[in-house]
Amino acid sequence: MQLDERKYLILQAIIDDYIMTAMPVGSRTISRKSGVGYSPATIRNEMSDLEELGYLDQPHTSAGRVPSNKAYRLYVDHLMKTVKLTSDERERMHEHLLSKSKQVEGVIRSAAGVLSDATKYTSVIVAPKLGTLRIKHVQLVPVAERTALMVIVTNAGIVKDAIIRVPEGMDADDLYAISRMLTQKLADKPLEAVRQAFSELLRNAEYNRRLLGETLSVIEQRLESGPDASDVIVGGPGNMLEYPEYSDVNKARSFLAVLESKDTLRRLVNRDGGMEITIRIGPENQVPELNDCSIVTASYRVGDHSNGTLGIIGPTRMNYNRVISVLDFMGRALSDVLSEYR
Amino acid sequence: MQLDERKYLILQAIIDDYIMTAMPVGSRTISRKSGVGYSPATIRNEMSDLEELGYLDQPHTSAGRVPSNKAYRLYVDHLMKTVKLTSDERERMHEHLLSKSKQVEGVIRSAAGVLSDATKYTSVIVAPKLGTLRIKHVQLVPVAERTALMVIVTNAGIVKDAIIRVPEGMDADDLYAISRMLTQKLADKPLEAVRQAFSELLRNAEYNRRLLGETLSVIEQRLESGPDASDVIVGGPGNMLEYPEYSDVNKARSFLAVLESKDTLRRLVNRDGGMEITIRIGPENQVPELNDCSIVTASYRVGDHSNGTLGIIGPTRMNYNRVISVLDFMGRALSDVLSEYR
DNA sequence: CGTTAGCACTCGACTCCTTTGAGTGCTAAC
DNA sequence: GTTAGCACTCAAAGGAGTCGAGTGCTAACG
After folding, report:
1. How does strand A277-281 pair with strand B159-165?
2. What are the Cα distances from residue A19, in Å, to A7, A72, A285?
3. Do A342 and B144 touch (CB under 8 A)?
4. How far is CA A279 from CA A15, A81, A327, A329, B194, in A?
5. What is the pLDDT of residues A75-122, one digit of tens each?
6. What does the DSSP 8-state code read for residue B75?
7. For A266-296, how does the pLDDT look when each residue is reduced to its tens digit (9 = 90+)?
């Protein structure tokens, strides 16, 4: 059996309706819709076919039909017609984004806010992979005897810091000099190339080996541990509770638990391909707790080689259309705003 | 009518039981408890008195009694006997706290995690008021033509950054020189004294007035806006859903909404007095959404003059005892760990 | 006189039953 | 091929009955 024109039409109508209402859709409802000129009985026959083909599920015999994950896949791949955001809306989002543009973290944070507000779902933004960022500046700041704070400013203005031990007897001026030297040697190198640059420095006996060694190991630790909690920002975690899918507290709880585990979240949202928009529906995202969630992600650019990810987590029956438009727009906007800092 | 010994005993027994079960407590339950040698009938009489005095509420005639907010107040003020944490537990918490001690924000973040894990409630940690922190280091890092990132390292290693515009034609070396000068002039001054220090600098015509003006205004903006989102860290937001008080999704939602508004949260948790532990029960915290929550806060010290706050939000029937022990311990631990950075 | 046993009463929680209505599948007629 | 008609299904909503934890009151007890 194949999908003909009419089956597409009906499936689309069902999905559209279900996305709005979250209630099983009956044949009468579809029949009444404008653009569908068939009686409920005909619709029923088609629905029966669609169910057999795996596009519809029936919660129980006397309920309407519900789109299956297969149906959503078909929908996002072929059926969906993308709608543009109104320029008014773009305006508002852009403005909101700029309101905190004085601080870099603020921009990302408000981006998460804008995303979750605009979609009413939960948003996740992941900072670019640390290793791909380029170093702008390295500064060792004395904070106590034998202790210094190492501050690394990367392009995109993302600041990383870590405490390091320094050898006895180094004063602020020594650290200042070393900072300056490090900045010169490392500037514009991606973080992952740091080890190499360091080994070169270490061959040069003129610098303090112990301090450099410590510094290097701290940077490497940071690199290995990957993006940490502060690099995964969640917006509107509570939005999800608005939907009947999560009217059960237990479901809500396990959903929130996933959001708290930044590690899982990062893995979930980080995307394989360099595609514009990635959509993962239900079980496709491999996390049992999120079996009836879909995750839509896009990426934003920082500098020439670094990509961060922004994504929306919502129920599988989410408004893909709108989510995609919003993500697409915000991806560009975020790239723009962050590029200004370069 | 006055509270005699027996009434205290019974009230305490009721509160203890209700804290554990969240179910209205009946006279039989209390009578069976060890330490109370009275029959249910006697207990009932006393309960009736306690209700009249406003210490107990009755959800409906045929249910048991529930402690009122007034009862909790009495409990925390007079009835409660504090229990010590086991040294094993202290050990574990301290260890967990140190695991991320390489990064300052990491410490605060894991502190929030430890707090919420140890208490099973929601934790909030607020960084010290910006103005009271002392400047350790100021660095202007060029990020683009006419744009620089200003990084301010304060004591306690807390790093603040902001984008500023710089006049045309300044290169990295110029910024380096200015950074060095600024660091020298501002070091160890609290942030709130910066305006004064700047006006002195500005009188000196030798420095670039426009740049200094811009820098000052950015710092002032930061100061005025108060601690921002990244300075309010929430741990275990989902923990609250474990309790029957929040088995209603709507309540859960409005609770989560409060957690999202970092501003309200900060106001809520920031304490008036310099008291060791502050407890606000139910309506005492002035936020309608949190009418049946209690907030317990303690403070941690950063440097000599700055105080941050750590707090627990839980249902009014929370285990005050344990919460207080945990907060007390963590307050000290946090002060210790952060003081090491000085 | 304080304490307690006894008893009637209350009321939410639970179970069981019925009704309702939205929806289906099938068949026969158009 | 499409549709009207009809019997059938089943969750949801409403109502009656039962249960049981708990109360308040009264009278008796030490």
Report:
1. unpaired
2. 18, 10, 20
3. yes
4. 17, 15, 11, 16, 49
5. 999 999 888 999 999 999 999 998 877 777 888 999 999 999 999 999
6. I
7. 999 987 666 689 999 999 999 999 999 999 9
Query: In this predicted model, what pLDDT tens digit does every residue of B35-85 receive, in sequence order?
Result: 888 999 999 999 999 999 999 999 999 999 999 999 999 999 999 988 899
pLDDT value at position B272?
Answer: 67
Find all residues with CB under 8 Å of A80, minimum gap 6, and list them: A320, A321
- How many CB atoms are closer than 10 A to CB A338? 25
Distance from CA of A230 to the nearest CA of B (A): 8
CA A5 remoteness from chain centre: 35
Distance CA A281, CA A75 (A): 11
Interatomic CA distance for residues A63 and A237, integer angstroms: 31
Residue of chain A whose Cα is closest to the Cα of B188 = A143
Alpha-carbon span A104 to A88, nearest angstrom = 25
Based on DSSP, count helices (H) and strands (E) in chain A, helices before strands: 12, 10
* Residue A287 per-residue DSSP state: -
Distance, C-alpha A109 to centroid of its chain? 12
Contact list in B for residue A142 (CB cut-off 8 A) is: 136
Residue type for A163, please? Answer: I
* Of residues A182, A199, A143, the one with CA closest to residue A166: A143
Q: Please give the structure tokens belonging to residue A235.
A: 């917006």
Taking an 8 Å cut-off on Cβ atoms, the answer to whether B260 and A252 are in contact is: no
User: So what's the pLDDT on residue A206?
Assistant: 60
* Burial category of A30 from C-beta neighbours within 10 Å (exposed 0-12, middle 13-18, buried 19 and up): buried
Residue window 129-168, chain A: list those with CB within 8 Å of chain B.
136-137, 139, 141-144, 147, 149, 151, 153, 155, 157, 159-163
C-alpha neighbours within 13 Å on the C-beta side of residue A251: 15
Cα separation, B323 vs B315, in Å, equals: 12
On whether the CB atoms of residues A56 and A14 are closer than 8 A, the answer is yes
For residue B284, what are the contacts with CB-CB under 8 A and spacing of at least 6?
Answer: B69
> How far apart, in Å, do the first and last CA atoms of chain B sit?
56
Report if pTM > 0.90.
Answer: yes
Residue A87 CB burial class (10 angstroms; 0-12, 13-18, ≥19): exposed
The residues, ordered by sequence, that sit 6+ positions from A258 with a Cβ below 8 Å of its Cβ are: A264, A265, A287, A289, A290
Q: 3-state class of A276 per DSSP? A: coil
Q: Which nucleotides of D are covered by protein (CB under 7 A)?
A: 2-5, 8-11, 20-26
Angle formed by the axes of helices B87-98 and B104-119, nearest 10°: 150
Q: What residue type is assigned to position B143 of the chain?
A: V
Q: What does the alpha-carbon distance between residue A250 and residue A92 come to, in Å, rounded to a whole number?
A: 36
Instruction: Give me the amino acid identity at B220.
Output: E
| C-beta separation of A97 from A114 below 8 A | yes
Helix, strand or coil for residue A86?
A: coil
Q: How many CB atoms lie within 10 A of CB B168?
A: 7
Q: Which amino acid is at B237?
A: P
Give the burial string for A150-169 (b: 16+ CB within 10 Å, else e).
bbbbbbbbbbbbbbbebeee
User: Which residues contact residue B258 at a Cβ distance below 8 angstroms, ignoring those fewer than 6 apart?
Assistant: B264, B265, B287, B289, B290
**Chain A 183-222, residues with CB within 8 Å of chain B CB atoms:** 218, 221
